[in-house]
């Protein structure tokens, strides 16, 4: 069955970068490889390496699935983490019950 020569490796990067994820698998016959993005569950590639233009939509976990007929499927994953400065996501005005407004 299929085996990893080198399992996929997670990366930490920034917006706008292009990252290559690799799924280095050995098998006989040659395994069929699929990459699936966890957030969308869609197949994003069917090759050992994928190039990802990093954005909020493309960040996250990618599963590499290697399949050889008659053998169990081999699955690995890599994450694309985005380094960015912190942002405040709450409203500027906060309300506290029975205490008024906190500014």
What does this protein structure show overall?
The protein contains no helices and 11 strands. Strand 5 (about 30-35) and strand 6 (about 40-45) form a beta hairpin. The strands form 4 sheets. The protein has a 5-stranded mixed sheet, with no helix packed on it. A two-stranded antiparallel sheet has the order 1-4. The model has no long low-confidence stretch (mean pLDDT about 90). By secondary structure, it is mainly β. Pfam families: Ig_2. This is Ig-like domain-containing protein.
Residue fraction in strands: over 45%
CATH class: Mainly Beta
- What level of helicity do the residues show? under 10%
Q: Can you give the mean pLDDT?
A: 91
The CATH homologous superfamily is named Immunoglobulins
Q: Structural class, from secondary structure content?
A: mainly beta
How far the N terminus sits from the C terminus, by CA atoms, comes to: 62 Å
Report low-confidence residues grouped into runs of 5 or more: none
Do you know the CATH architecture? Sandwich
Main sheet: strand order: 2-9-8-5-6
Shape: elongated
Largest sheet, strands/sense/barrel:
5 strands, mixed
| Rg (CA only) | 20 Å
Number of domains: 1
* Number of contiguous helices: 0
CATH topology name, in short, is Immunoglobulin-like
**DSSP strand count:** 11
């Amino acid at each position: 069955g299929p085996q990893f020569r080198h399992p996929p490796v997670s990366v930490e990067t920034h917006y706008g970068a292009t990252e290559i994820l690799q799924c280095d698998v050995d098998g006989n016959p040659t395994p069929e490889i699929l990459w699936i993005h966890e957030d969308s569950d869609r197949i994003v590639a069917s090759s050992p390496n994928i190039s990802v233009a990093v954005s909020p939509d493309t960040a996250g976990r990618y599963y590499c699935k290697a399949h050889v007929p008659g053998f169990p499927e081999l699955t690995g994953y890599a994450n694309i983490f985005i380094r960015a400065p912190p942002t405040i996501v709450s409203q500027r005005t906060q309300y506290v019950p029975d205490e008024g407004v906190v500014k």
